[in-house]
Amino acid sequence: MTTDTTDALLEIDNVAKSFGGLQAVQNCSLQVRRGTITGLIGPNGAGKTTLFNLISGFYAPDAGSIVFQGKRIDGLPPHRVFHHGLCRTFQVPKELKQMTVLENLMLVPTGQAGEVLGAAWIMPWRVRQQEREAYDKALDVLEFVNLAHLRDEYAENLSTGQKKLLELARAMMTDPQLIMLDEPGAGVNPTLLTSLMEQIERLVAERGITVLLIEHNMAVVMGLCDPVIVMSNGEKLAEGTPAEIQQNEQVLAAYLGGQNR
Amino acid sequence: MTIEAILSSGILNYLVGFLIVASIYALFTLGLNVHFGETGLINFGVAGFFAIGAYTAALVTKPLPTGELARYTQQALGLDQPFLVGVIAAAVVCGIVAVLIGIPTLRLREDYLAIATIGIAESIRLVFNNEQWLANGSQGLVGIPRPLYDLVPPAYYNYIYLGIVVLILAFVAVLLERMIRSPWGRVLRAIREDEVVAAAYGKNVFGFKLQALVLGAMVMGIGGALYAHNAGTISPGVFEPVFGTFIVWVMLILGGSGNTKGVILGAFVFWAIWAGTQFATDALVPPALSARAPYFRFLLIETLLVLMLLFRPKGILGEERFVSTLRPR
């Protein structure tokens, strides 16, 4: 894990979002540096998942800007954000239930000629060739996350932990600059969790992908992430190395429900 | 019996008529399968596309009325074009209407599309019922030309038309199956399962939904055109929701939503049951109650639907496990 490089891949500047009277995110500014595994923690309701939804285009911010690789992406619809090289997973696994594990993955690659209506008639060779590539890649990824034996199973039949792995696997089917993982470890058993953490580290080390992850499991956060960013009441409260965060009075107060921090 | 006697016998004639109508319904079912079976779009307005297809084909292929008939027919246009031009026009007009319906409704939650399509189908029927300038209002259009009518004696014509309908059905089914069982169809199925995931992985959900809506509507339009040429006469009463929409849904669910072969099978099996219940009610219902017999049929059919949903919710065939047939095995 190198944090020498200082260039910001993702810059969030003064972003705000409210739902009716509830200010979910406010004055939120933070940066994710290239090549890091940045952890995003905070008490329930701190606005972490809302921030993910703002970055990935599911919500448009009320104010502020989100810049990814030098380009503003706030207000773009999710499918356009994805094509900027930013990929996310979901806190509650969103497996495509009545589709096989393999096809959950084969859906993902960009630039599939076969996604054009009628392409299967007009240029079947090209579609077949791309299907072969997507198939091989999907098998590789499934080996990577130990789901290869379940490739022809309907995704709905997977266990919760396996669905979490499927979320990660889907994200790995593309070559994003940034993967945002929303609680990748929740509901995953300890053995699987260890392998999940290794896999995330390998993503960064071997493929140069930057990771931003939300996690409540402190063992995961402290073992994996540097830096760690703490959110509370919709804004950034602190940022630092895991050790610094563990010593931070404000953070401890926020986690203990401190009203008078 | 000679061949001629067999061909013109009552039972065979009934059977051929049965197969023609079942094949036409199979086209509606194929269209609805693109909408609901593959993409999850809830279209309760099949009857609307049915009507537009039928009226378009009629107006494109019929000549303008002349002589005595012209005094009783308010027909805005009669292009006197060949059969296939009418079929293609029916598909194109239905596609355009689908774009107009899709643009305001497809970005909304799926239930809005369901509500909108019910309303639009009923509006289309009521417009045809009340207009007095386009297609002769509630009296409808008569004398819709029949393709290749002079080829054989009229008594045998139904065999020719059955051939035409089956050819078109087979063409559409093969065309659709290949399109659906490809990466394009995989995106549709992903949208059906969870459109948030499809969007998060870069798919333009609105664009794909619109393509599916238009394609399915065009197939329904072809079905409507074939209906018009088979009946020879159409009027707004034909396009009531029960026969235009409801039974198409039953066929889809019965045969296996999401499976091209299944939904065609569903259309034939349902239409056989529907015809069978007519004989059953004729035999079982005492003459004093015969006026109410149609409701007994509905009761039988709806019982069948409920039993199907309870015990075999995926239909007779169910959908194939893999979408793309172009992937390696």
Would you kindly provide a written description of the structure presented here, covering whatever features stand out?
- The complex is a heterodimer of chains A (261) and B (329).
- With 261 residues, chain A is of the alpha/beta class.
- Chain A has helices spanning 48-55, 78-83, 101-106, 119-122, 124-144, 160-172, 190-207, 218-224, 242-247, 249-255; strands at residues 8-19, 22-33, 37-41, 63-68, 71-72, 86-88, 178-182, 210-214, 228-232, 235-240.
- Chain A has 2 domains: 8-95 and 174-255, P-loop containing nucleotide triphosphate hydrolases (Rossmann fold, 3-Layer(aba) Sandwich), CATH 3.40.50.300; 97-157, no CATH class.
- In chain A, 37% of the residues lie in helices and 23% in strands.
- In chain A, the strands form 2 sheets. In chain A, strands 6-7-8-3-9-10 form a 6-stranded mixed beta sheet, sandwiched between helices.
- Chain B is mainly alpha-helical and 329 residues long.
- Chain B has a domain at 16-241.
- In chain B, 68% of the residues lie in helices and 0% in strands.
- Chain B contains 13 helices and no strands.
- At the A-B interface, helix 2, helix 3, helix 4 and helix 5 of A face helix 7, helix 8, helix 9 and helix 10 of B.
